[in-house]
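Sharing a chain and its predicted structure for anyone who wants a worked example. Both blocks are below, sequence first, C-alpha cells second.
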Amino acid sequence: MNKVTSWKSCVLTLALCTASLCAHAADQLANVRKAGELVVGTEMQFAPFDFLENGQQAGFNKDLFAEVGKELGVKIRFIDLPWASVLPGLEAGKFDMVGGPLTVTKARMDRYAYTLPVADATDALLKRANDTSVKQSADIAGKTVGAGKGSAQLDQLKTYAATLPKPPEIREYVDNNQAYADLASGRIAAVANSVTNVAYVAKQRPESFAVVQPAFGAKVYFAYVLRKDADSKPLADAFNTALVKIHNDGRLAALQKKWFGAAMDTPTTLPTPNY
C-alpha cells in the first residue's frame, strides 16, 4: 500500500468513525436506554415539585418521573443544584433534562424543547382562611398584597392590579415563605403565586390559608425542558408518549391530587403560551 492509498484509507476510517459517533450522539434516547438511567437536573427547594424531607427527596417530580421511568424502562437519577445553575447545566450537557418545572413561555420555547404540561401554572391568590373580605380576586382592590420579587407572578399581578378600580399596594418578597408569614399575621391580604404552589400551601395549612377562586392570571402551564436539538428530540418524543399514557390512565390526576390537592386539566398537546 503506497502512502497516498494509506492516507486516503485513514481519512475514510476517521470519517466513518466520526459518522458513527455522531449517529450515536444524535439519539439521546438511545444513550439514556444504554445507560439505564434518565438524569434530571433540578432544585430541591420548590415544593410541592421537589423538596427535601428529613434529608430525602420528596414531591411531585419524584413520583411522576418514577412513573415515566417505568414506561421508558430506565431508572431516574436527580441532580440537586441551585436554580441558577440548572438551565446552564442542561445546556452544557450535564444531564438529560430539567425537572423544575418551568412556566411555558414564548421566550423559553425559542430556546428549549418543552415536554407536555404537567400542572397548571396560572396565577392565583392565597388568602387567610378566615378572611371573608376576600371572596374573589377583585376583592384585593385597595388592599395590600404580595408576590415574589422578579417573578412572572409579580408581573401578572401588576397587570391585573391595574385593571381594578382601586389598585392594591404590592409588596415584593425575595422569599415566598416570608410572604406567607406576613399573610398569616395579617400584614397583607393575599399572596400571588401559581395556583399549583398556593394550592399546596393551602393543603398543608388548611386552618390558616385558602385559595381564592377563580385564578386571576392568564392560563399558563408548568412543563419540563430538554435541549432544543435533534439529539434530544427522540427522548422528548418518548417522554411525551409516556406522559400521555400516564395522563390517560389516571396516574397523572392521582399525583396532582396527592401533591396539589386537586386534579388539574392539563392538555395532551403543547399549548401556545400567552406571553
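Comments welcome. Residues 3-25 have pLDDT under 50 and may be disordered.
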